[in-house]
């Protein structure tokens, strides 16, 4: 700021008196800005009085969120609360004490998508998003498992209707459309990202099963048998193999 001739001062009070002096209004105050890397020209600006500076709102003018949209977001989030409190039925059916919730399951899947190495043709950020929404309809319909005897087609219809209701509560728009798209992509196994997240769904389940076996001294063969041979990706297969190897090692130690 050493290049500011008329505006330089020894104290803030002196500068304020200069800026508020009526005799200097409309007098240009030129100073040097850093050189532009393209044209290397000097720029000039006109000093403004404090009164002429535009008032800035606490909220950016670019953000025009209405009360109704804010209300819709909170209503949607409140509905999602049940994802945190609804326990995964597979563990409940096996009398696991303090079983994980739907949200617990989805969160660790999202972490898997976050830490997985870069893979050709795979958008990791999209994987994270898919993981976070793939079971979101269970906020309304709950965790429907094979033991419930609900046909796959009927389960999908129930979850689609629930998702439509949730997106209506959210107020529609771009974010609701994105949630619908991500959910459908996963449901149809329609992309490389969906393939990987489908594998994460199974990997997370057998990892949780191993943890419950260790914690509760149980044998939960059902979860390992139901996923055997169903992994689609190399990552899914290798992570599952590591979990199974650790399980086999633990079981072997118990026998000895």
From TrEMBL:
<comment type="function">
    <text>Catalyzes the dephosphorylation of the nucleoside 5'-monophosphates deoxyadenosine monophosphate (dAMP), deoxycytidine monophosphate (dCMP), deoxyguanosine monophosphate (dGMP) and deoxythymidine monophosphate (dTMP).</text>
</comment>
<dbReference type="GO" id="GO:0002953">
    <property type="term" value="F:5'-deoxynucleotidase activity"/>
</dbReference>
<dbReference type="InterPro" id="IPR006674">
    <property type="entry name" value="HD_domain"/>
</dbReference>
<dbReference type="InterPro" id="IPR039356">
    <property type="entry name" value="YfbR/HDDC2"/>
</dbReference>
<dbReference type="InterPro" id="IPR003607">
    <property type="entry name" value="HD/PDEase_dom"/>
</dbReference>
<feature type="domain" description="HD">
    <location>
        <begin position="102"/>
        <end position="206"/>
    </location>
</feature>
<comment type="subunit">
    <text>Homodimer.</text>
</comment>
<protein>
    <recommendedName>
        <fullName>5'-deoxynucleotidase</fullName>
        <ecNumber>3.1.3.89</ecNumber>
    </recommendedName>
</protein>
<dbReference type="Pfam" id="PF13023">
    <property type="entry name" value="HD_3"/>
</dbReference>
<comment type="similarity">
    <text>Belongs to the HDDC2 family.</text>
</comment>
